[in-house]
Amino acid sequence: MLVQVRSEVSIFVIKLVALDLDDTLLDSELKISPPTASTICRAIEQGVVVTLATGRMYRSAQPFALELGLDVPLITYHGALVKTSLTKEVLYHKPVPMELARKVISSVQEQGFDVNLYQNDELYVRKGNPRIQDYSDLAQVSYTEVGDLLSCMYTDTEKLLVIDEEEKLDRLAITLKELIGDKLHITKSKPFFLEITHPEATKGQALDTLANNLGITRREVMAVGNSYNDLDMLEYAGVGVVMGNARPEIKERADFVTLTNDEHGVAEAIKRFVLAEVV
User: Fold this and answer.
1) Active-site annotation holds for 20
2) Tell me: the pLDDT tens digits for 29-47?
3) Average pLDDT in the 235-246 region?
4) Which of 84, 141, 166, 181 sees the fewest Cβ atoms within 10 Å?
5) pTM, whole model, 2 decimals?
6) Catalytic: which of 20, 23, 156, 232?
7) E strands, 24-95, in order
C-alpha cells in the first residue's frame, strides 16, 4: 500500500522512471522479482522510459538492465557515469580528478581505512579482506589487489568507496569535508558504505541531464530509492517514492512511501503512478 507523505504533490503523466538497485529494485536475494519485472515491461510497452540509477559500477548494473531488456542510458557510480546499456555510448561523465583522488586516498589510509578505487570500470584495492569479498559478492564484480593504490593510479576515478562501521564512517566523513570542502560529494549508499564522487556526480544531476536529453520535464519523472544517495534524485523528480524498508529519515523526504523491496514496492509505485492502476 502506498502512503502519501506530502499532501501538496501534483501528479503529471510520468514519462521517465529512475530506479535505484540495491534495497529498491532488487529484493533481499539481489534479484528482480517476476511481478516487478512484468510491471516494468508493461510500462515500457506504454512508451515510458525506465532506467537504473545506482551507485554500482556500470558493469555491475548492466546485467540487470539487459535482464529487463532496457536499451537506455544507465545512471551509474551515483551519476559519475551515464552510459547506454547496449551501444555503450557515454552521455555524461564526471570522474574525480586524479590528484584530488590521491589526496583523499592518502588521508583515508592515514586514518586506518582501506579504500576501493574505480578506474575505467575496474575495481582496485590495496589488499583483499572479508569486507572487500562481501562487496565483491554483492556487486558480482572481481577486484584487483595492487598493494599500493597511489602507485597504480593512471587516470581519474569514477568514485572512491570506504567500507566500515557506520559510526566510524560518519567521523571519517567529517574529517574529509574539512579536508576537501565542497570539492567532492560525500554520501552513504548503505550505512556501512561511504561514497566519494565528483560534486556534479549525483543521481539528481545525472537524472536531470538524462531527462533534458530526452525532452522530458522533471514533473514527468518518477524516482524510486531507499537511501541517502537517492535524496537529491527524489527531490528532483516530480514524484519521489521511497521504499518501505528505508530508514525513517529517508521516508520523511519522500512524496510517497511504497512497500518494501521484498513486497514488490517498485511494482506498486509503477502501477499507481505510471499505469494509473488502483493499488
Assistant:
1) yes
2) 999 999 999 999 999 999 9
3) 97
4) 181
5) 0.94
6) 20
7) 49-52, 73-76, 81-84, 90-93
